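re: ur msg from earlier - yeah i can do the iron/sulfur cluster complex, just paste it... oh wait u already did. ok heres what im feeding in:
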Amino acid sequence: MLYGTLMERRIANARAGARKYRVYTRKDIGTLPQLQRLSVTDRVAMEAVAAVLPFRVNHYVVEDLIDWSNVPDDPIYQLTFPQPGMLRRRDFARMFRMIRRDAPEREVRAAARAIQYSMNPHPAGQLDLNVPVLDDEPLPGVQHKYRETVLIFPAAGQTCHAYCTYCFRWAQFVGIEELKFASREADAWQRYLKAHPEVTSVLLTGGDPMIMKAAVLRRYIEPLLAPSLSHISSIRIGSKAPAYWPYRFVTDEDADEILSLFEEVRQAGRHLALMAHYSHPRELGTPIAELAVRRIRDTGAAVRCQAPLVRHVNDSADAWAQLWRRQVRLGAIPYYMFVERDTGPRDYFSVSLARALKIFNDAYRQVSGLGRTVRGPSMSATAGKVVVEGVALVGGQRVFVLKFLQARNPEWVGRPFFAKFDEQATWLDDLEPASGAKEFFFEAGLRELAARRASGWAEREAGFTA
Ligand SMILES: *Cc1c(COP(=O)(O)O)cnc(C)c1O
Ligand code: SF4
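and the outut:
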Protein backbone atom coordinates (compact mmCIF):
# COMPACT_ATOMS: atom_id res chain seq x y z
CA MET A 1 0.00 0.00 0.00
CA LEU A 2 2.72 2.38 1.04
CA TYR A 3 4.64 1.33 -2.03
CA GLY A 4 1.52 1.87 -4.15
CA THR A 5 0.99 5.44 -2.99
CA LEU A 6 4.67 6.26 -3.21
CA MET A 7 4.72 4.98 -6.78
CA GLU A 8 1.59 6.96 -7.62
CA ARG A 9 3.09 10.10 -6.18
CA ARG A 10 6.23 9.60 -8.21
CA ILE A 11 4.24 9.13 -11.39
CA ALA A 12 2.14 12.20 -10.60
CA ASN A 13 5.31 14.22 -10.05
CA ALA A 14 6.78 12.95 -13.30
CA ARG A 15 3.55 13.85 -15.12
CA ALA A 16 3.54 17.34 -13.61
CA GLY A 17 7.16 17.88 -14.64
CA ALA A 18 6.87 16.18 -18.03
CA ARG A 19 7.94 18.27 -20.94
CA LYS A 20 6.75 17.79 -24.45
CA TYR A 21 9.01 15.57 -26.50
CA ARG A 22 11.28 17.71 -28.68
CA VAL A 23 13.81 16.44 -31.17
CA TYR A 24 16.80 18.18 -32.64
CA THR A 25 18.36 17.23 -35.96
CA ARG A 26 21.01 18.55 -38.33
CA LYS A 27 19.05 21.72 -39.08
CA ASP A 28 19.11 22.65 -35.38
CA ILE A 29 22.89 22.56 -34.99
CA GLY A 30 23.11 26.28 -35.69
CA THR A 31 20.52 27.22 -33.06
CA LEU A 32 20.62 24.64 -30.26
CA PRO A 33 21.58 26.83 -27.25
CA GLN A 34 23.95 24.28 -25.70
CA LEU A 35 25.99 24.18 -28.93
CA GLN A 36 26.63 27.91 -28.92
CA ARG A 37 29.62 27.29 -26.67
CA LEU A 38 31.36 25.56 -29.61
CA SER A 39 33.39 27.54 -32.12
CA VAL A 40 31.85 28.18 -35.55
CA THR A 41 34.41 25.79 -37.04
CA ASP A 42 33.33 23.03 -34.66
CA ARG A 43 29.70 23.56 -35.54
CA VAL A 44 30.45 23.44 -39.27
CA ALA A 45 32.39 20.23 -38.61
CA MET A 46 29.40 18.81 -36.79
CA GLU A 47 27.09 19.70 -39.68
CA ALA A 48 29.51 18.14 -42.13
CA VAL A 49 29.35 14.81 -40.31
CA ALA A 50 25.59 15.10 -39.75
CA ALA A 51 25.08 15.50 -43.50
CA VAL A 52 26.43 11.96 -43.97
CA LEU A 53 25.50 10.10 -40.79
CA PRO A 54 22.10 10.59 -39.19
CA PHE A 55 21.88 12.92 -36.21
CA ARG A 56 18.91 13.07 -33.89
CA VAL A 57 18.73 13.87 -30.23
CA ASN A 58 15.96 15.00 -27.88
CA HIS A 59 15.77 17.54 -25.08
CA TYR A 60 15.93 14.91 -22.31
CA VAL A 61 19.30 13.72 -23.59
CA VAL A 62 20.51 17.29 -24.12
CA GLU A 63 19.31 18.69 -20.80
CA ASP A 64 19.40 15.77 -18.38
CA LEU A 65 22.05 13.35 -19.63
CA ILE A 66 24.87 15.40 -21.13
CA ASP A 67 27.25 17.25 -18.83
CA TRP A 68 27.97 20.28 -21.02
CA SER A 69 30.83 21.44 -18.82
CA ASN A 70 32.72 18.34 -19.97
CA VAL A 71 32.14 18.64 -23.73
CA PRO A 72 33.57 17.26 -26.03
CA ASP A 73 34.74 14.43 -23.72
CA ASP A 74 31.38 13.83 -22.10
CA PRO A 75 30.37 10.22 -22.84
CA ILE A 76 26.73 10.95 -23.65
CA TYR A 77 27.79 13.82 -25.93
CA GLN A 78 30.12 11.37 -27.71
CA LEU A 79 27.26 8.88 -27.84
CA THR A 80 24.83 11.21 -29.57
CA PHE A 81 26.56 14.17 -31.23
CA PRO A 82 28.46 13.78 -34.53
CA GLN A 83 32.24 13.77 -34.16
CA PRO A 84 34.75 14.71 -36.88
CA GLY A 85 36.63 11.43 -36.37
CA MET A 86 33.62 9.46 -37.58
CA LEU A 87 34.38 10.15 -41.24
CA ARG A 88 37.54 9.27 -43.10
CA ARG A 89 39.79 12.32 -43.26
CA ARG A 90 39.26 12.84 -46.99
CA ASP A 91 35.48 12.49 -46.76
CA PHE A 92 35.36 14.81 -43.80
CA ALA A 93 37.42 17.47 -45.58
CA ARG A 94 35.15 17.32 -48.61
CA MET A 95 31.94 17.67 -46.59
CA PHE A 96 33.45 20.37 -44.41
CA ARG A 97 34.29 22.50 -47.44
CA MET A 98 30.81 22.04 -48.88
CA ILE A 99 29.04 23.04 -45.68
CA ARG A 100 31.37 25.99 -45.12
CA ARG A 101 30.63 27.43 -48.55
CA ASP A 102 26.93 26.74 -48.04
CA ALA A 103 26.69 24.43 -51.06
CA PRO A 104 23.20 23.69 -52.37
CA GLU A 105 21.44 20.86 -50.52
CA ARG A 106 21.24 18.78 -53.69
CA GLU A 107 25.02 18.82 -54.01
CA VAL A 108 25.53 18.03 -50.31
CA ARG A 109 23.17 15.09 -50.56
CA ALA A 110 24.86 13.62 -53.61
CA ALA A 111 28.28 13.80 -51.94
CA ALA A 112 26.86 12.34 -48.72
CA ARG A 113 25.25 9.47 -50.59
CA ALA A 114 28.53 8.51 -52.25
CA ILE A 115 30.25 8.39 -48.87
CA GLN A 116 27.39 6.41 -47.31
CA TYR A 117 27.62 3.73 -49.98
CA SER A 118 31.34 3.36 -49.36
CA MET A 119 30.79 2.78 -45.63
CA ASN A 120 29.53 -0.82 -45.55
CA PRO A 121 26.23 -0.44 -43.76
CA HIS A 122 25.14 -4.08 -43.59
CA PRO A 123 27.92 -6.18 -42.16
CA ALA A 124 27.94 -9.85 -41.22
CA GLY A 125 26.03 -11.10 -44.25
CA GLN A 126 22.79 -9.77 -42.86
CA LEU A 127 21.03 -9.03 -46.10
CA ASP A 128 21.88 -12.24 -47.91
CA LEU A 129 22.18 -14.94 -45.32
CA ASN A 130 19.56 -14.12 -42.73
CA VAL A 131 16.51 -13.28 -44.80
CA PRO A 132 14.09 -16.18 -44.50
CA VAL A 133 12.15 -17.64 -47.41
CA LEU A 134 8.40 -18.13 -47.53
CA ASP A 135 6.68 -19.60 -50.60
CA ASP A 136 9.94 -19.19 -52.49
CA GLU A 137 9.97 -15.48 -51.81
CA PRO A 138 12.32 -13.61 -49.47
CA LEU A 139 10.45 -12.29 -46.46
CA PRO A 140 11.22 -8.59 -46.01
CA GLY A 141 11.79 -7.19 -42.52
CA VAL A 142 12.47 -10.57 -40.97
CA GLN A 143 15.75 -12.27 -40.08
CA HIS A 144 16.24 -15.83 -39.01
CA LYS A 145 19.86 -16.54 -38.20
CA TYR A 146 19.77 -18.67 -35.05
CA ARG A 147 17.36 -21.60 -34.91
CA GLU A 148 15.37 -20.54 -31.84
CA THR A 149 15.00 -16.83 -32.52
CA VAL A 150 13.37 -14.79 -35.27
CA LEU A 151 13.92 -11.06 -35.58
CA ILE A 152 11.15 -8.81 -36.85
CA PHE A 153 11.82 -5.23 -37.95
CA PRO A 154 8.44 -3.46 -37.77
CA ALA A 155 8.13 -0.90 -40.57
CA ALA A 156 6.97 1.81 -38.16
CA GLY A 157 9.82 1.15 -35.73
CA GLN A 158 12.76 2.08 -37.94
CA THR A 159 13.79 5.18 -36.06
CA CYS A 160 14.82 5.98 -32.46
CA HIS A 161 14.28 8.66 -29.80
CA ALA A 162 17.89 9.71 -30.40
CA TYR A 163 20.59 8.17 -32.58
CA CYS A 164 23.79 6.63 -31.30
CA THR A 165 26.80 7.89 -33.17
CA TYR A 166 28.29 4.40 -33.53
CA CYS A 167 25.11 2.72 -34.68
CA PHE A 168 25.41 0.27 -37.56
CA ARG A 169 21.75 0.70 -38.51
CA TRP A 170 22.18 4.15 -39.93
CA ALA A 171 21.33 3.01 -43.46
CA GLN A 172 17.83 2.46 -42.14
CA PHE A 173 17.67 6.05 -40.93
CA VAL A 174 19.18 7.87 -43.90
CA GLY A 175 16.74 6.38 -46.37
CA ILE A 176 18.89 4.27 -48.64
CA GLU A 177 15.91 2.27 -49.81
CA GLU A 178 17.58 -0.86 -51.05
CA LEU A 179 19.55 -1.18 -47.83
CA LYS A 180 16.59 -1.04 -45.54
CA PHE A 181 14.77 -3.96 -44.08
CA ALA A 182 11.37 -3.36 -42.65
CA SER A 183 8.38 -5.56 -42.20
CA ARG A 184 4.96 -4.45 -43.37
CA GLU A 185 3.39 -7.78 -44.14
CA ALA A 186 2.05 -9.12 -40.86
CA ASP A 187 0.35 -11.99 -42.59
CA ALA A 188 3.62 -13.24 -44.08
CA TRP A 189 5.67 -13.36 -40.87
CA GLN A 190 2.80 -15.00 -39.00
CA ARG A 191 2.64 -17.76 -41.60
CA TYR A 192 6.39 -18.14 -41.42
CA LEU A 193 6.30 -18.57 -37.64
CA LYS A 194 3.48 -21.11 -37.88
CA ALA A 195 5.61 -23.11 -40.27
CA HIS A 196 8.61 -23.02 -37.89
CA PRO A 197 7.81 -24.68 -34.57
CA GLU A 198 11.51 -24.68 -33.66
CA VAL A 199 11.29 -20.91 -33.11
CA THR A 200 10.65 -20.18 -29.43
CA SER A 201 11.58 -16.51 -29.24
CA VAL A 202 10.61 -13.50 -31.34
CA LEU A 203 12.65 -10.35 -31.06
CA LEU A 204 11.12 -7.09 -32.25
CA THR A 205 13.89 -4.77 -33.22
CA GLY A 206 14.61 -1.69 -35.33
CA GLY A 207 15.51 1.12 -35.05
CA ASP A 208 13.49 1.09 -31.88
CA PRO A 209 10.05 -0.57 -31.75
CA MET A 210 9.20 1.60 -28.72
CA ILE A 211 8.98 4.59 -31.06
CA MET A 212 5.68 3.09 -32.21
CA LYS A 213 2.34 4.00 -30.71
CA ALA A 214 0.85 1.35 -28.42
CA ALA A 215 -1.84 0.53 -30.99
CA VAL A 216 0.79 -0.19 -33.65
CA LEU A 217 3.03 -2.21 -31.33
CA ARG A 218 -0.07 -4.23 -30.45
CA ARG A 219 -0.38 -5.35 -34.08
CA TYR A 220 2.96 -7.11 -33.69
CA ILE A 221 2.54 -8.51 -30.19
CA GLU A 222 -1.07 -9.63 -30.08
CA PRO A 223 -0.83 -12.13 -32.97
CA LEU A 224 2.13 -13.78 -31.25
CA LEU A 225 -0.11 -14.64 -28.30
CA ALA A 226 -2.51 -16.70 -30.43
CA PRO A 227 -2.83 -20.39 -29.48
CA SER A 228 -1.64 -21.32 -32.97
CA LEU A 229 1.73 -19.77 -32.06
CA SER A 230 2.02 -21.40 -28.65
CA HIS A 231 5.59 -22.44 -29.48
CA ILE A 232 6.61 -18.79 -29.09
CA SER A 233 7.45 -18.74 -25.38
CA SER A 234 9.13 -15.36 -25.22
CA ILE A 235 8.79 -12.03 -26.93
CA ARG A 236 11.63 -9.56 -26.76
CA ILE A 237 11.66 -5.90 -27.62
CA GLY A 238 15.06 -4.38 -28.32
CA SER A 239 14.88 -0.75 -27.23
CA LYS A 240 16.87 2.25 -26.14
CA ALA A 241 13.78 4.13 -25.01
CA PRO A 242 14.47 3.35 -21.31
CA ALA A 243 17.74 5.29 -21.74
CA TYR A 244 16.86 7.99 -24.29
CA TRP A 245 13.19 8.57 -23.49
CA PRO A 246 12.10 6.85 -20.25
CA TYR A 247 8.97 9.04 -20.31
CA ARG A 248 7.76 6.51 -22.90
CA PHE A 249 6.83 4.21 -20.02
CA VAL A 250 5.64 6.84 -17.56
CA THR A 251 4.07 10.00 -18.95
CA ASP A 252 3.60 9.52 -22.70
CA GLU A 253 -0.04 9.63 -23.67
CA ASP A 254 -0.19 5.89 -24.29
CA ALA A 255 2.31 4.82 -21.59
CA ASP A 256 -0.35 3.00 -19.60
CA GLU A 257 -1.57 1.28 -22.75
CA ILE A 258 1.98 0.06 -23.41
CA LEU A 259 2.19 -1.36 -19.92
CA SER A 260 -1.19 -3.13 -20.24
CA LEU A 261 0.05 -4.69 -23.45
CA PHE A 262 3.10 -6.00 -21.57
CA GLU A 263 0.77 -7.43 -18.91
CA GLU A 264 -1.26 -9.20 -21.57
CA VAL A 265 1.85 -11.09 -22.62
CA ARG A 266 2.15 -12.53 -19.15
CA GLN A 267 -1.56 -13.28 -18.99
CA ALA A 268 -1.19 -15.24 -22.21
CA GLY A 269 1.40 -17.41 -20.50
CA ARG A 270 4.41 -16.01 -22.31
CA HIS A 271 7.40 -14.02 -21.20
CA LEU A 272 8.20 -10.49 -22.28
CA ALA A 273 11.76 -9.22 -22.05
CA LEU A 274 12.58 -5.63 -22.72
CA MET A 275 16.11 -5.81 -24.07
CA ALA A 276 17.23 -2.41 -22.88
CA HIS A 277 20.21 -0.77 -24.48
CA TYR A 278 22.12 1.09 -21.74
CA SER A 279 25.54 2.37 -22.72
CA HIS A 280 26.52 4.32 -19.64
CA PRO A 281 25.53 4.42 -15.94
CA ARG A 282 24.36 7.99 -16.33
CA GLU A 283 21.44 6.72 -18.40
CA LEU A 284 20.19 4.99 -15.23
CA GLY A 285 20.92 7.90 -12.94
CA THR A 286 17.78 10.03 -13.34
CA PRO A 287 14.57 9.54 -11.32
CA ILE A 288 12.55 9.13 -14.51
CA ALA A 289 14.87 6.39 -15.78
CA GLU A 290 14.49 4.49 -12.50
CA LEU A 291 10.75 4.90 -12.60
CA ALA A 292 10.59 3.54 -16.15
CA VAL A 293 12.38 0.34 -15.10
CA ARG A 294 10.12 0.01 -12.06
CA ARG A 295 6.98 0.32 -14.13
CA ILE A 296 8.13 -2.12 -16.82
CA ARG A 297 9.06 -4.70 -14.19
CA ASP A 298 5.73 -4.26 -12.43
CA THR A 299 4.03 -5.66 -15.54
CA GLY A 300 5.87 -8.94 -15.06
CA ALA A 301 8.27 -8.17 -17.89
CA ALA A 302 11.99 -8.57 -17.38
CA VAL A 303 14.47 -5.87 -18.27
CA ARG A 304 17.65 -7.36 -19.72
CA CYS A 305 20.48 -5.01 -20.55
CA GLN A 306 22.99 -4.96 -23.36
CA ALA A 307 25.29 -2.52 -25.12
CA PRO A 308 28.41 -2.40 -27.18
CA LEU A 309 31.73 -1.36 -25.74
CA VAL A 310 32.56 1.89 -27.49
CA ARG A 311 35.67 4.03 -27.34
CA HIS A 312 34.96 7.59 -26.10
CA VAL A 313 31.65 6.42 -24.57
CA ASN A 314 32.11 3.52 -22.16
CA ASP A 315 35.64 2.17 -22.58
CA SER A 316 36.30 1.98 -18.86
CA ALA A 317 35.88 -0.89 -16.41
CA ASP A 318 34.48 1.43 -13.75
CA ALA A 319 31.74 2.66 -16.08
CA TRP A 320 30.63 -0.93 -16.77
CA ALA A 321 30.84 -2.01 -13.15
CA GLN A 322 28.71 0.94 -12.12
CA LEU A 323 26.31 0.27 -14.97
CA TRP A 324 25.84 -3.37 -13.93
CA ARG A 325 25.46 -2.44 -10.26
CA ARG A 326 22.76 0.11 -11.06
CA GLN A 327 20.98 -2.48 -13.19
CA VAL A 328 21.04 -5.06 -10.42
CA ARG A 329 19.80 -2.50 -7.89
CA LEU A 330 16.78 -1.83 -10.09
CA GLY A 331 16.14 -5.52 -10.69
CA ALA A 332 17.30 -5.35 -14.30
CA ILE A 333 19.53 -8.13 -15.61
CA PRO A 334 22.93 -7.54 -17.22
CA TYR A 335 22.93 -9.61 -20.45
CA TYR A 336 25.53 -8.84 -23.15
CA MET A 337 28.57 -6.65 -23.65
CA PHE A 338 29.18 -6.47 -27.39
CA VAL A 339 32.30 -5.64 -29.31
CA GLU A 340 31.49 -2.85 -31.75
CA ARG A 341 31.07 -4.41 -35.17
CA ASP A 342 32.75 -3.68 -38.43
CA THR A 343 30.75 -0.86 -39.92
CA GLY A 344 30.65 2.81 -40.82
CA PRO A 345 32.33 4.99 -38.23
CA ARG A 346 33.90 2.04 -36.47
CA ASP A 347 37.50 3.23 -36.56
CA TYR A 348 36.67 6.12 -34.29
CA PHE A 349 34.80 3.91 -31.84
CA SER A 350 36.57 0.58 -31.96
CA VAL A 351 38.31 -1.04 -29.03
CA SER A 352 40.77 -3.92 -29.56
CA LEU A 353 39.69 -7.38 -28.42
CA ALA A 354 42.56 -7.52 -25.93
CA ARG A 355 41.47 -4.24 -24.35
CA ALA A 356 37.79 -5.21 -24.44
CA LEU A 357 38.60 -8.38 -22.54
CA LYS A 358 40.55 -6.45 -19.93
CA ILE A 359 37.73 -3.93 -19.45
CA PHE A 360 35.18 -6.74 -19.21
CA ASN A 361 37.18 -8.68 -16.63
CA ASP A 362 38.10 -5.63 -14.56
CA ALA A 363 34.40 -4.70 -14.41
CA TYR A 364 33.18 -8.27 -13.84
CA ARG A 365 35.47 -8.62 -10.84
CA GLN A 366 33.80 -5.62 -9.22
CA VAL A 367 30.24 -6.96 -9.17
CA SER A 368 28.45 -9.64 -7.19
CA GLY A 369 27.20 -12.83 -8.76
CA LEU A 370 23.89 -11.15 -9.59
CA GLY A 371 25.77 -8.88 -11.99
CA ARG A 372 27.68 -11.76 -13.53
CA THR A 373 24.75 -12.79 -15.68
CA VAL A 374 26.45 -10.63 -18.29
CA ARG A 375 28.37 -12.30 -21.11
CA GLY A 376 31.06 -10.74 -23.23
CA PRO A 377 32.94 -9.31 -24.87
CA SER A 378 30.94 -10.81 -27.71
CA MET A 379 31.21 -10.29 -31.47
CA SER A 380 28.13 -10.68 -33.66
CA ALA A 381 29.96 -12.13 -36.65
CA THR A 382 28.69 -13.81 -39.81
CA ALA A 383 29.10 -17.25 -38.27
CA GLY A 384 27.54 -16.37 -34.93
CA LYS A 385 28.05 -14.64 -31.62
CA VAL A 386 31.61 -15.30 -30.54
CA VAL A 387 32.69 -14.48 -27.01
CA VAL A 388 36.30 -13.83 -26.07
CA GLU A 389 36.59 -16.03 -22.99
CA GLY A 390 40.12 -15.11 -22.08
CA VAL A 391 43.80 -15.24 -22.91
CA ALA A 392 45.64 -18.45 -22.11
CA LEU A 393 49.08 -19.95 -22.52
CA VAL A 394 48.84 -23.14 -24.58
CA GLY A 395 52.07 -25.00 -25.32
CA GLY A 396 54.04 -21.82 -24.61
CA GLN A 397 51.93 -19.77 -27.05
CA ARG A 398 49.63 -16.92 -26.03
CA VAL A 399 46.13 -17.50 -27.41
CA PHE A 400 42.65 -16.04 -27.29
CA VAL A 401 40.14 -18.60 -26.04
CA LEU A 402 36.94 -18.12 -28.07
CA LYS A 403 33.52 -19.73 -27.98
CA PHE A 404 30.25 -19.47 -29.88
CA LEU A 405 27.34 -18.31 -27.73
CA GLN A 406 25.11 -18.50 -30.79
CA ALA A 407 25.87 -19.95 -34.18
CA ARG A 408 24.33 -20.32 -37.58
CA ASN A 409 24.96 -24.03 -37.13
CA PRO A 410 23.82 -24.96 -33.59
CA GLU A 411 26.53 -27.66 -33.47
CA TRP A 412 29.18 -24.96 -33.20
CA VAL A 413 27.81 -23.56 -29.92
CA GLY A 414 29.86 -24.14 -26.81
CA ARG A 415 32.98 -25.52 -28.49
CA PRO A 416 36.07 -23.58 -27.41
CA PHE A 417 38.56 -22.67 -30.11
CA PHE A 418 41.86 -20.84 -30.07
CA ALA A 419 43.32 -17.93 -31.99
CA LYS A 420 46.81 -16.50 -31.93
CA PHE A 421 46.91 -13.63 -29.49
CA ASP A 422 46.98 -10.33 -31.36
CA GLU A 423 47.15 -7.10 -29.41
CA GLN A 424 45.77 -5.03 -32.31
CA ALA A 425 42.92 -7.28 -33.49
CA THR A 426 39.47 -5.72 -33.24
CA TRP A 427 37.37 -8.44 -34.86
CA LEU A 428 37.21 -12.13 -35.61
CA ASP A 429 38.41 -11.49 -39.19
CA ASP A 430 41.70 -10.18 -37.80
CA LEU A 431 42.42 -13.45 -36.00
CA GLU A 432 44.22 -16.62 -37.10
CA PRO A 433 43.85 -20.13 -35.72
CA ALA A 434 46.44 -20.81 -33.02
CA SER A 435 47.04 -24.29 -34.45
CA GLY A 436 48.57 -22.89 -37.62
CA ALA A 437 45.62 -24.23 -39.65
CA LYS A 438 44.55 -22.05 -42.59
CA GLU A 439 41.13 -21.37 -41.12
CA PHE A 440 38.90 -21.88 -38.09
CA PHE A 441 36.87 -25.07 -37.73
CA PHE A 442 33.60 -23.46 -38.78
CA GLU A 443 34.73 -21.63 -41.92
CA ALA A 444 34.25 -24.41 -44.45
CA GLY A 445 30.77 -25.05 -43.05
CA LEU A 446 29.97 -21.37 -43.27
CA ARG A 447 31.01 -21.23 -46.94
CA GLU A 448 28.82 -24.22 -47.62
CA LEU A 449 25.81 -22.57 -45.98
CA ALA A 450 26.43 -19.41 -47.99
CA ALA A 451 26.82 -21.31 -51.26
CA ARG A 452 23.64 -23.26 -50.67
CA ARG A 453 21.87 -19.98 -49.99
CA ALA A 454 23.27 -18.33 -53.12
CA SER A 455 22.33 -21.21 -55.41
CA GLY A 456 18.88 -21.22 -53.84
CA TRP A 457 18.43 -17.57 -54.78
CA ALA A 458 19.77 -18.14 -58.29
CA GLU A 459 17.34 -21.00 -58.88
CA ARG A 460 14.45 -18.95 -57.71
CA GLU A 461 15.45 -16.08 -59.95
CA ALA A 462 15.65 -18.47 -62.89
CA GLY A 463 12.11 -19.58 -62.12
CA PHE A 464 12.88 -23.02 -60.68
CA THR A 465 11.12 -24.22 -57.62
CA ALA A 466 13.17 -26.69 -55.67
C1 LIG B 1 21.87 -11.71 -30.86
C2 LIG B 1 20.95 -12.21 -31.88
C3 LIG B 1 19.85 -12.99 -31.54
C4 LIG B 1 19.52 -13.33 -30.10
O1 LIG B 1 20.49 -14.10 -29.51
P1 LIG B 1 20.37 -14.47 -27.98
O2 LIG B 1 21.68 -15.09 -27.64
O3 LIG B 1 19.22 -15.40 -27.87
O4 LIG B 1 20.13 -13.20 -27.25
C5 LIG B 1 19.06 -13.47 -32.54
N1 LIG B 1 19.31 -13.20 -33.85
C6 LIG B 1 20.36 -12.45 -34.22
C7 LIG B 1 20.59 -12.18 -35.66
C8 LIG B 1 21.20 -11.93 -33.25
O5 LIG B 1 22.25 -11.19 -33.63
S1 SF4 C 1 19.07 3.19 -30.26
FE1 SF4 C 1 19.85 1.30 -31.23
S2 SF4 C 1 19.09 1.36 -33.33
FE2 SF4 C 1 18.83 3.42 -32.44
S3 SF4 C 1 20.67 4.53 -33.01
FE3 SF4 C 1 21.09 3.63 -30.99
S4 SF4 C 1 22.04 1.63 -31.43
FE4 SF4 C 1 21.07 2.35 -33.30
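cool cool. The chain has a mean pLDDT of 91. ping me if u need the other ligands too
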